[in-house]
User: What shape does this take?
Amino acid sequence: MPSDYTGNYDLERDFKNIWHPCTQMREHESAPLLLIEKGDGVYLIDRDGKRYIDVISSWWVNIFGHNHPRLNKALKDQLDQMAHVMFAGITHSPAINLAESLVKLTPSNLTKVFFSDNGSTSVEIALKMSLQYWKQVGENQRTKFVYLSGSYHGETLGALSVCGINLFREKFKNVLMENLEVQGPDCYRCPYDLKPESCKAECFEHLEKALEKNRGTVAGVIVEPLVQGASGMKMYSPVYLEKLQEACEAYEVHTVYDEVAVGFGRTGSLFVCDSRGLKPTFLCLSKGITSGYLPLAATLTSDQIYQAFYGEPASMNLFIHSHSYSANPLACACANETLSLLTKNNFLENMKPKIKFLKEAGSSLSEIKWCGEFRQIGMIAAIELVQDQLSKDAFPLKDRVGYKVYLEGLKRGVFMRPLGDVIYFIPPLIITNEEIEIMMNAAFESIEAVLG
Ligand SMILES: Cc1ncc(COP(=O)(O)O)c(C=O)c1O
Assistant: This one.
């Protein structure tokens, strides 16, 4: 039992009719699901009133904590106006305001916003726009995307076609689009034996070679800037992104920045691309956009792309990707409030000492004998557990080390669902130093409890 339930519940009923995502349902025969009834700041509160720090921001979406008074109000105010309306032939102020803010806050080449409702779809849209663009400008042969090993862009079939993690793509590989996987950065197990301080992103040579070899047939390159989330919060140098920008310009291919996970302040700046003068052709946003209140996504692109779709009323050049809940007004209202919270009162500037504190508090994890690497960028941190620090060998899968640490964490009041044996921290940005300390101590104790 992961948590000390005291109530008299029918625990089997919790999963009798529901099939949960990313879950071997049989697990719950022995480990009950956590039934959460309430959220309060960084805390989740279960049916017994037990509080857990939401260490991973409910799958990385929550920026300002649960039950935030200003977000609640923004949502309620919009609800009194209109819950939803279709988004073709009709527009509305929450979406107009949001698009305007996003364009102001992202690189200057991004001037058009296409709304949808989840991260995978924001990627699908970027891929489809890119392909259709090349077709409409007469470059039909540009049909392939280059993606990195270890990359994750969602789980629809298009997004899986640019996924560099076997766990997700293997079962469907026979039906996926044929794209080009290249070896991506792997700083912990760097094949060049370089240290992050002196690295010049030598590993970029793989991508460069792929662009050279496939000159004229590549539509675009897709990356998760700075952090490959699903593959274990693997972090890499911004130099890689600078080289990518140069190469994409030289080979005239699109760059797709998937900032679904890292956008909205996670890395310490609002967006990775904006903080470093990078200019992607497409920028995919979701997750933190509504601070975890409602599903929403946006794909931003340039006027050059937009113009290739702009034609006579009867022309078939239009972009067709229509979801019923595109630009839902309630979600847009939450997004507008999220952006207001993020950009006013020096919120991101004031976060700097907290980022430093997270780094210091987390570095105590490096002392653990099983710590392969402790890594951190902004408010994202992770410890990769290995069975041997020298060889960097992972624990056998069957040992389920990460999962056992997760169960220990629940006992200690932290919800830190791991990625394999990577225990990671991507808490709501409003977490206090005191809560960071509680979270890190709980992680330390949980790892010790499992591995000794
Ligand atoms: C980088 C990245 N892209 C896309 C997605 C897919 O987003 P969603 O789960 O909303 O479809 C995720 C989800 O974790 C992600 O991390």
